[in-house]
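User: I'm curious what two different proteins look like when written out as structure tokens. Can you demonstrate?

Assistant: Sure. I'll show them one after the other, since each token string lines up with its own sequence. Here's the first protein:
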Amino acid sequence: MFEGFWSFKYVYLLSVFAVMSVLTIVGMILLKRMESKRLSALKRKDLSEAVETDSPEEDSEKIAKHRAVVSVENRFIFIRRLFLPSMALLSIFVMVLPFLTFLPAAYISIFAGAVAVLVGMAARPLIENLFAGLVITFNQPIRVGDTVIIQGRYGTVEDINLLNTIIKVWNWRRFIIPNNKLLTLEYENLSLNSENEWAHVSFWVEPAVELEKVREIAKSAMKACKTLSPVEEPSFWVMTMGKEAIECWVAGWASSPAEAWALKSGTRRNLTKLLKEHKINYHLKRNMITDHSVNIIERKSGD
């Protein structure tokens, strides 16, 4: 009887060791391939700032790519370091599981309960952020270099580690978000599927104005911008009509979120100049006419 038991024990232990070793090796290979794939895609990606400007840093794109590569490498290094001891602990647990019947169930329950309470009290924030970081790493709802609008802040993702995500806001300040909070937030990722962005500028004119002339002026103002993509010419819409004002939109394509920002700024500047030249009153707000004032209407969605 005892010989059969010890024979079963050795076979079981060897089988668990072999299976867990194979799973560990396969897991490490998959992690390495995933890291190489992410790095290759990152090196091909055009990392631009949220706003087109002469950067105070020399070769800012090269610096941004270096930071992005380091961020990805550090995440996968940490994941591999976490993966190996996790698999070792899991292997040990599976190996000793059949032999726990020798211990009283009360002792096992007390030990497990104590461990759970200690981990829950001391390491809950760390564990939550850690698992959220793993979800972000593998699911990629947000990536280093993406242009995002999150909690009203417009900027680029500078770094993602396993605990928090750093957003470089358009004015170069850093906005740090814990990863567990990031997973519950609603945000716009302007770079998720396409870098192209449909940029529009809204403004109001007096009801007595000739709309066809306004249409020509608005389209000319956007066409004069170098950041307008040649995909198609700008479009013009009349959005609302009221007793005091008519809301108009002029919109066009930009090849990146940063160029969309510049396109809207340039369009407003040109539009202000042309409307002044044609003596057309335009509105800063719907209920307020201000002659020769520029329309700068920033919404949370980036205009």
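Here's a second, unrelated protein for contrast:
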Amino acid sequence: MRYFDLHCDTITQCFTQNKDLTENDLQIDLKRAEFLDAYTQCYAVWLPDQFRGQAAFERFFAVATYLSQEIEKNSNSICWQNSVDNLSQNPCQAVLTVENASALGGNIENVEVFRRLGVKLCSLTWNGENELGRGVMSPGNTGITPFGREVVAQLEKNEICIDISHASPELFWDVISIAERPVVATHSNAKHVCAHPRNLTDQQFEAIKVSEGLVGLNLYRGFLNDDSQKASYEDILRHTEHFLNLGGEDILAFGADWDGSARRDFVATGIEAVAELYEMFCRYNYSETLIDKIFYKNAADFFERQKSH
């Protein structure tokens, strides 16, 4: 089976806890992913909201460098996603992303650093408010700032897609109104199924679909069921089915959010559970073609299209 995941915080956890990507006690490592026939993982440099200014940029740079070193150390088993044209040459690939554009340190010129280091996706905020706009968990009704508008334009100019997971509703719609490239929600579920503020309304999902973007299913309990203690694998199917009913066959993917919180806060314990999820989808009588789209092909095709823009 093949698996393409749009979001994890694993490399940030590896950096802060001085752990190896090769083998660790987190939710993802390369050794446990060896069962997959093809595996691409987006590794997010996550910036908590307390990081601002030069300290935020330095944190980004340090974590991005750490990922580069881990890939170089494991070059026989993983490579950068855009470094080979034929996946069979190396079935395990990594994509560098940013969670919270406070990583720019308030300096528009650092978008060029993002591009040079290979960043492919960047969310404008985390939960709080920063120089670009308001995150969904921050009180208020403001959207994008003038600086945020500049950043969106520069990110797109540098072929870095906008990730609107964590954006406030106002920020979301501001981005939709100005974005010229596809917009992605790397790790957000359906608000119709679970009313958490981090989830997407049907209208937001439709806007992402119109932009020819992607939506990644999140395995965090709090985004799966209004009663997080009752969240289960079946809830993943509920969100999947809802998005499919909205016409999401070609834009739905996974963004599990591995290592984004404590292990107990996820319905799946780690990368090994992907096989269980796959089997569950098979039991639900989805076609092999549709399952492969959700688990791998939609995301892989999306990144391939971005190369040709």
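A detail about the second structure: The chain has one domain: 2-307.
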